[in-house]
Write a structure and sequence with these properties.
The chain is an alpha+beta fold. It contains four helices and eight strands. Strands 1, 2, 3, 4, 5, 6, 7 and 8 form an eight-stranded mixed β-sheet that branches. A hairpin with a 2-residue loop joins strand 5 and strand 6. The longest helix is centred in the first third of the chain and has 34 residues. About 25% of the residues are buried. The mean pLDDT is about 80.
C-alpha cells in the first residue's frame, strides 16, 4: 500500500514538472515571436542599402510567383511594413486580427499596434484609427503585450503603397 502511494505521488510530481517545463517552453517561444515582430528565429534577415521604395520591392516580389512568405520592411526600431503571400506567421493578437490576404491587396493601409500605440488611437464608433502624418490609418488588431511588442506599429503593404 505504501509503495503504491509513493509511486502515485512520484507520478504526480513528474506530471507537474513536465507541465511546468512545457509551459516555460511555450512562454519562451511566445516571447521570441513578439520580440521578433512575428518573424521566426530561423528567418533570413537581409540588410540592404537599396534606395528602392517598399511598393517597388513588393511589386517585384509579387512577380516572382513565390508562395507562402512574409517580408517585413523595418522603417525604424518600432515601425515596420509587412507584405505576405499564402501561409505566413502572425503575431498573437489581443483584440481584432492580424493582417489578412485582403489587407495586402487593398489600396489602403491598415495597422496592427502594440499597447503603447493603442492607448493613443482615435476612436470612431467601433473602429480605431492611428493618426499618421495628417492621415488616419485603420487599426485592425492590437498585439498581446510584452515589453518589446508594446511600442510596435506594423502597417500592411501593397504595391500601391509607399513607405513615405
Amino acid at each position: 500500500m505504501l509503495k503504491h502511494t509513493f509511486v502515485s505521488i512520484l507520478g504526480l510530481i513528474i506530471a507537474i514538472l513536465a507541465g511546468l517545463a512545457l509551459s516555460k517552453a511555450d512562454q519562451t517561444q511566445y516571447a521570441n515571436v513578439l520580440n521578433h515582430a512575428g518573424i521566426a528565429d530561423d528567418a533570413f534577415v537581409y540588410h540592404t542599402k537599396s534606395t528602392k521604395k517598399v511598393n517597388q520591392a513588393v511589386t517585384q516580389l509579387e512577380q516572382t510567383g513565390l508562395k507562402d512568405y512574409q517580408v517585413q520592411f523595418a522603417l525604424d526600431k518600432t515601425t515596420s511594413m509587412v507584405f505576405a503571400e499564402g501561409e505566413y506567421t502572425s503575431l498573437p493578437i489581443d483584440s481584432g486580427h492580424f493582417f489578412t490576404s485582403a489587407d495586402f491587396k487593398s489600396s489602403l493601409p491598415v495597422a496592427v499596434v502594440g499597447a503603447n500605440a493603442a492607448a493613443n488611437l482615435y476612436q470612431a464608433g467601433d473602429q480605431s484609427y492611428l493618426p499618421l502624418k495628417g492621415h488616419y490609418v485603420a487599426v485592425v488588431g492590437t498585439v498581446k503585450t510584452n515589453q518589446a511588442a508594446a511600442s510596435m506599429t506594423i502597417f500592411s503593404s501593397t504595391p500601391q503603397l509607399t513607405a513615405n
